[in-house]
Amino acid sequence: MKAAKKPVKWIGLAAILLLPGIILILLSRGDHQFTKLPHYGEKNSTTELIDGKTVVDTVYHQVPYWTFTNQFGESVSQSDYDGKIYIVDFIFTTCPGICPIMTTQMSQLQFKLDKPGLNQIPFISYTVNPENDSAEVLLAYGKEHGADFERWTFLTGEKQKIYELGVLGYMVSTQEDALAEGGFLHSEKFILMDWNHTIRGFYNGTDINEISEMTDDIKILLKEEQKRKK
Fold it and tell me: Could you give the angle at the alpha carbon of 77 between the alpha carbons of 76 and 80, nearest 5°?
């Protein structure tokens, strides 16, 4: 009877040793929905009749169309970012508070994303003080912070349009406020956008840990984009 139990003992031991490897193989395959990033903002459903079948699709909040002026005095529009993953923030050049930290972090992000597949992701910094931050001022500011202008665009334009875009489009605070530090109230968030101009993440632009989280989320979003194109 003792001899009969021996194979069972070894089979059980082998199963215990092999189980982690089997789990790892299974996790490395397939589509894991738990890694898909959320969509922010309101969403609506649409129905369409295709080949006699009713197909329901979800339409997510999209940032409305915009056109502004970059640091070179050139017109830049939302269509320049069609089909791209990109990162957005709101700053102003005379900001005495969080802007220098945010801009330094964005500058460092250029190096963190300097890898194939990541180094094509553009950045946009909108000024919330366009009356002061002309194209020339933004150009000097960008140079001061080591901006790669091939990837990083600074935008100025009509103040009210920028504020409306911030609040209604990107869903962050953007306004003139005499009580705020520097006279303007704006969010500290970096905003991760997808190819449909849909918000996929908010991250504290002054927090290194959250910026690291964003770089990880960008990789997840890139995988989602690759799957979408197949």
Answer: 90
Instruction: Judge contact between 106 and 204, C-beta under 8 A.
Output: no
Domain that holds residue 158: 63-229
Is 174 part of a structural domain of the chain? yes
- Give the integer Cα–Cα distance in Å for 47 and 35: 27
3-state class of 100 per DSSP? helix
pLDDT at 16: 43
What's the pLDDT tens digit per position in 72-107?
999 999 999 999 999 999 999 999 889 999 999 999
The CA-CA-CA angle for residues 116, 117, 121, to 5°, reads 115
Q: Is residue 43 part of a domain?
A: no
Establish if 100 belongs to a structural domain. Answer: yes
Number of structural domains (the chain) is 1
Residue 17 lies in a domain: no
pLDDT digits (tens, 9 = 90+) for 26-46: 333 334 444 789 999 998 877
CA nearest to 85, candidates 120, 109, 61, 111: 120
